[in-house]
Amino acid sequence: MRKFERRIFWRNVREYAAGAVVIAAFTRYEWKFHGLLVRLGSGLIIAGTLYVMYQLHRRASLRPAPADMGLSPCIEFHRKTLERQRDALQTIWSWYLLPFVPGLTVFVVGSILDRWAAHPENLEHLILNSLGPSAIMAAVFLVAWRLNRRAAARLQAQIDELNDLGDNGDSRP
After folding, report:
1. If residue 155 lies in a helix (H) or strand (E), which one and from where to where?
2. Taking burial as the number of CB atoms within 10 A of a residue's CB, which of 25, 52, 146, 171 is the most buried?
3. Sequential DSSP letters for 17-67
4. For 83-96, how does the pLDDT look when each residue is reduced to its tens digit (9 = 90+)?
């Protein structure tokens, strides 16, 4: 259980650090760019990041085990912890990825429109140049979803093992 808790702790530390980097980068965009849509997109990305960080804390933070717990309650506590983490990973689209979509969409469209205003003859070229970064973002979302789905399946296997212990009468009351 301690090993699992350490993994969750360091995963969350990495996620919070990444969130801080995203907030810092898009705060800089708020000041650097003058286009309304780019600034609005940056603000939405910052808001989405704060929402994701809050949801990460709410859904997937560690909850300490009671110190006076016996073996059976410890196994049950660990099962519930695994289920909570699994549920957080299975619903990643709704609370982790989706909050970034509005901000990224507005940011990309705003970037295209700002560059188009400066060079109206290059609209087609600007749109085509934006497809690459948009495809990369979509690929990152897909990879994040698949990795989390795989991790949720591994957690489910651990939950099933704990359930099998209880079904075979091997766990102690």
Report:
1. helix 123-167
2. 52
3. HHHHHHHHHHHHHHHH---HHHHHHHHHHHHHHHHHHHHHHHHH---PPPT
4. 999 999 999 999 99
- Token readout for 143 is 């990879």
Q: What's the CA angle centered on 52, arms 108 and 95, to 5 degrees?
A: 90
Using only C-alpha atoms, what is the Rg of the chain? 22
| pTM for this entry | 0.80
HSE of 95, CA atoms in CB hemisphere, 13 A: 17
Give 26-30 contacts, CB < 8 A, sequence gap 24+: 26/103, 29/107
Do 110 and 36 meet the contact criterion of CB atoms below 8 Å apart? yes
Q: Which tens digits make up the pLDDT trace of 34-82?
A: 889 999 999 999 999 999 999 999 999 988 766 666 656 778 888 999 9
